[in-house]
Amino acid sequence: MISYEVYKILHLLGLVLLFSGLVGLLTVRMSGGKLEGSTKSLVFVSHGVGLVLLLVSGFGLVARLQLTQNMPNWIYVKLAVWLFMGGALTLVKRKGQIGWPLYLSLLIVFLIAAYFAVYKPF
Ligand code: HEM
Predict the structure, then answer these.
(1) Which atom of ligand 1 is nearest to the CA of 62?
(2) pTM for this one?
(3) 3 three-state secondary structure
(4) Where do runs of H (alpha helix) occur along the chain?
(5) Ligand 1 probe mutation, 17, 53, 57, 61, most atoms within 8 A of CB
(6) Among 5, 21, 99, 116, which residue is least crowded by beta carbons within 10 Å?
(7) 59 CA closest ligand 1 atom index
(8) Domain limits, the chain
């Protein structure tokens, strides 16, 4: 059985991978660089694996916290953030030249997820 601690470490790894992909693509777009070859696979694989790890470890954490039966609303907020971060790669691919404002927006969405995970307000 996978422990709560291992799920938490996998959750944090998923977070690092997700943002590696998003910010990697953002910097390619900001610099006008080419998204091809190993740059392209690094961006897409990191984002994809990060998303899957966050979802699987997220539900693992839900199970270890014994919240599966009656999932509190803060987990639905997390799922909404997860869906947004899934679509964010397309947003960055199309609008990455916007640069800093887009980067700060992604960080604000992350802070919303972190706030709900740590404070569990409702
Ligand atoms: C992009 C999406 C997500 C982000 C940015 C995110 C972020 C975080 C952060 C920062 C933490 C706190 C880690 C800590 O306490 O050290 C956390 C914990 C947690 N997350 Fe996520 N998460 C995401 C997706 C999900 C999903 C999809 C689920 C559920 C299906 C989920 C469920 C949880 C749970 C249950 C915890 C543990 C809370 C605890 O230990 O008290 N997360 N998440």
Answers:
(1) 35
(2) 0.92
(3) coil
(4) 4-31, 37-64, 73-95, 100-119
(5) 61
(6) 5
(7) 30
(8) 4-119
